[in-house]
Amino acid sequence: MIKKGMRRQIVLHYILVVFLALLLVEVIFLLAIRTYYYDSIYSKITNQLSTAETYFNKYQVKGMDSTVRLQDLLDTFTFNNTELEVLTRNGDIVTSSTGFQPDRTITTSDVPEAAGGSIGRWVGRQPGTNESVMAVSKMLQIHGRDVYILRYLTSVESINSGLLNLTLLSVGIGGAVLVIVALFSIGLANSIVKPLNNITAVSAQMAKGKFNTRIKGNYRYEIAELATTINYMAQEIVRSNQIKDDFISSISHELRTPLTSIKGWSETLVSGGYDPEETKLGMGIISKESDRLIGLVEEILDFSKLQQNEMKLSIGIVDMKVLLQETILNVWAKAEKKRIHLLLECDDAVFVKGDANRLKQVFLNLVDNAIKFSHEDSSIVLTVQSLSNQEVAIIVRDSGIGISEAHLAKVRDRFFQVDALNGGTGLGLAITQQIVELHNGRIEMHSELGKGTQVTVILPLATEQALV
Questions:
Q1: Which fold has domain 6-161?
Q2: Which of 21, 158, 267, 447 is the most buried if burial means most Cβ atoms within 10 Å?
Q3: Using CA atoms, how far apart are residues 285 and 291, in angstroms rounded to an integer?
Q4: Residue limits of the Histidine kinase domain (predicted)?
Q5: Residue 323's closest CA among 344, 337, 340?
């Protein structure tokens, strides 16, 4: 017995479908054979009745004695293995080809039908012998005077016996077909269930943390797609875990460096004995490193809020020209150290509907990245272009080191860093993209290694009603 499961369901469903199909075909086939044989007998008897009626009306002499006529009828039109009976219209037997004339009235349905003018047909059990028979009756007028009913009675036992043998043969063939189908369905079920069991076992290993395990096997169709998807999932989990490990290592280093500076200068200042200039220098370093720590923590908190859909936007009308000018002023000192020129190309005021602080965070991050990866004595250009009456594009373009095609597809992934030596959490672009998406916008990036990068932020323009 097959245990409960998909294998059992497949086998049972296949057998059920084939069994119902075989049953339907066999029933239709046997009924068709039975109808064919019964109709053949009926047709032969009907033709004999028509011939008898024609013969008597054409060749018999009108003055011939009735008894002689009936005897001539029995002698001329009797079949082998068939009884011919002559009945009155009421069904009483006048004579028969067997010479046996029981004192009874025939009440089967064929007699009233014949008395009504049609050809009657009845199939059933013969009283007394319990034999299966067919009776066909027709009314016969001899020269328009004497009216009789001719009734042929023939056994159908041999036909029923042949049909029974044919039925048994059909059942045997059907049983053999079901056995073959069962074996085939078991093989088919195994071809489906075994790969699934393998996939389940590998998935269980992955659930235990063994993400280097892979599903192996030459599968096809949907099962192959499932195996490929699970392998890809495991690969991505391994990659994500590696990225998180790298992030933890990187953020630990990022946090440790300013903390070391703060701790060192704090201990130095506590010990005393320094002139005001050295004290001022130490306090400045402590303040700068504290700001750096705050920035790192805020970036992590922002990412956490975005992941949990807890970041709230303070929506208003934002003048992008003013916002970009403020962004340039905020990073001007950092750009000046590398002698990088910041240029803004925006002729008219452009208004969008959004959170000014979060949008400023977006462009600060983009411009800061551009400065970080640009060469000295280069330029960074911020361009505002209206795409239509509904959207505006803000382009940040530099001529720095650029990003390779392999890294460009991953640069917006969380924790990903093109160059871990430059510091940072690897969350900046991930946060930037999510903030832009919260404003119903999108980011497009184009870069060529060694020639620079262009980042385009596309935002919906504020409607005229909102500006009023």
A1: Beta-Lactamase (3.30.450)
A2: 447
A3: 10
A4: 250-463
A5: 344
